[in-house]
Prior knowledge:
With about 200 residues, this protein is an alpha/beta fold. The chain has helices at about 1-30, 55-70, 90-100, 120-130, 145-155, 170-190; strands at about 40-45, 50, 55, 75-80, 110, 135-140, 160. Helix 3 links the parallel strand 4 and strand 5 (about 110).
Amino acid sequence: MKRAVWIAIALAVLALLVSVAYLSMRIERQSTRDEARPADVILVLGAAEYRGRPSPVLRARLDHALELYNRKLAPRIMTTGGAGGDPVYTEGGVGRSYLIGHGVPVEAVIVESEGESTVQSTAMAGEIMHRMGLHSAIVVSDGYHIFRVKRMLQFRGLQVYGSPRKEHNPEPLHDRWNYVRQAIGYLLWRAGMGV
């Protein structure tokens, strides 16, 4: 009986490892695919901000969204992200200020500023889109992040296209780890855990 239990555990672990490896490959493929096309909104996933200024990662995401907006692929940009511990600023609010400072009209910027995780931000962004009658989005984030975010928004009935920000110095080993992390995060989300 003990042997059967150990075999079952080993098979379960093996199945989990195969699932993570398979998902990691799918995430890697998605990470370099730019699917940008006309949509209702450009959705920018939040990243760190420093006392009201976007971090280099957030700035790169916002600059990429600006490029898509200037190509007239969507009439609106939505920024996401909560305070992350900052008592004054939110990632979404900092993104809004940055975009307005770079010529995007105030009325063209939508802000989701309460999400403290990818799951929360995508849920709130999806809710905002539904309330506004928006049905499609171009998601802008780091490449490794796109697969999971697309699936979360598609789960909410939205049409989603990925458009990863440009990376100047990709690090293959770091990228591989990010693919694995995102695969695990995706599996946990599918299991009902909000990570």
